[in-house]
Amino acid sequence: MKFFGEELVIKMWDSFIDKGVGGILKPAQEKRLGKTRQEIRRDELLSLAQAEEDAKKIASGEAIYCGNGQIKLLRSEKEIEEYADNRIEPYIGNVNIRELASSAQTAEAIQKEVNIAKAIIHAEEELAQSEAEQTDKEIEKDWLYAWRGHAEKVSSEALQGLWGRVLAGEVKQPGTFSLRTMDFIKNLTKPEAELIEKVGQFVIADAIFRKLNNRFKEKGINYSDFLFLQSIGLITGVESSGLSLLLNSLSEETYVNYMLCEDKLIILEDPDPSKVVRIEAYSVTALGKEIFKLAGAAIDPVYREDAAKYFIGKVKEVSMADYLSFHDGYVQYENKTEVKP
């Protein structure tokens, strides 16, 4: 029995294997057919945890790498001296410089592979839950190499998750994330990534409602945070208190407009097709759209309700509905309910 998104997961692994960009999880892929995803993930995470621990011991000098995936712990000065016997120069004290350099490189290489593997696991989890259909378009080899080069450098869970979502997005639709976007992401620190995820809860239809600032304060987001996001090119209009976004009608007969909030839809309706609705908001840039989408934060439900109520009085009727799909210029939804003050 197939799991949700299995074809996308297979496409991801095929892309790595076909283009020779695989890592330490690649051999485990051969064993996947006979196990559940939960068993696979458990085994892989345990193996990665052990590899990461080995890398730390090698880097600290507690162990040496002996080849063939084996390490030897050095528990005492005597062991270190014995290990140094019959070795070729150069030495500093009892430490062989060549062995030290080799161990440092090995520790770094192991950590890089662990980082990549964890990002891949995040991507697989994302793809396994996706309803997107597989496309015939292939991921470019240069893109995969660039992704690998960036993902290997991050060891925090938040950033590994971010790179996992980048990979998953590209598997779903090759060409979604440019090399330029990846260059932006690679410079993000963990606190910056966490701020983006936190603010992402308040992005609706590529806007952040400036007047609903009580919700921001409750989440620990202040004005300086918005200024920072503006400075790195994700939003605009922070210093322009008079800036408004304009929503024109999508119909020529009556005023109709929609604001998509994940699986919900805010519906604005009015008899006057010439009406223009203004929103006092920060506008999300083209880069910001990609980055906030990657952050993967669910929209704050209270904020979503407040955003819907914001339009009461601006149009004759404000409704909320369950979003189904957008096809051939038509929005499909169900369970439409009028929003009350």
Short summary of the structure?
By secondary structure, the chain is of the alpha+beta class.
Structural notes for this entry:
The protein is globular and about 75 Å long. Mean pLDDT is 79; it is low at 30-34 and 83-95. α5 (97-128) crosses α7 (157-172). Strands 5, 6, 7 and 10 form a four-stranded antiparallel β-sheet that branches. Strands 8-9-11-12 form a four-stranded antiparallel β-sheet, covered by helices on one side. It has a two-stranded antiparallel sheet with strand order 1-2. It folds into two domains: 6-186, no CATH class; 194-338, no CATH class. It has helices at 6-18, 26-29, 37-60, 77-84, 97-128, 141-151, 157-172, 179-186, 190-199, 213-218, 223-231, 286-295, 301-310; strands at residues 63-67, 70-73, 91-92, 95-96, 207-209, 235-236, 244-247, 255-261, 264-270, 277-284, 317-327, 330-338. It contains 13 helices and twelve strands. β8 and β9 form a beta hairpin.
Query: How many domains, as an integer?
Result: 2
**What is the strand content?**
15-25%
Low-confidence stretches: 30-34, 83-95
The general outline is globular
**What percent of the residues sit in helical stretches (DSSP H or I)?**
40-55%
Topology pattern, helix = H, strand = E = HHHEEHEEHHHHHEHHEEEEEHHEE
What's the topology here?
Blueprint: H1 6-18, H2 26-29, H3 37-60, E1 63-67, E2 70-73, H4 77-84, E3 91-92, E4 95-96, H5 97-128, H6 141-151, H7 157-172, H8 179-186, H9 190-199, E5 207-209, H10 213-218, H11 223-231, E6 235-236, E7 244-247, E8 255-261, E9 264-270, E10 277-284, H12 286-295, H13 301-310, E11 317-327, E12 330-338
Antiparallel strand pairs: 1-2, 3-4, 5-10, 6-10, 7-10, 8-9, 9-11, 11-12
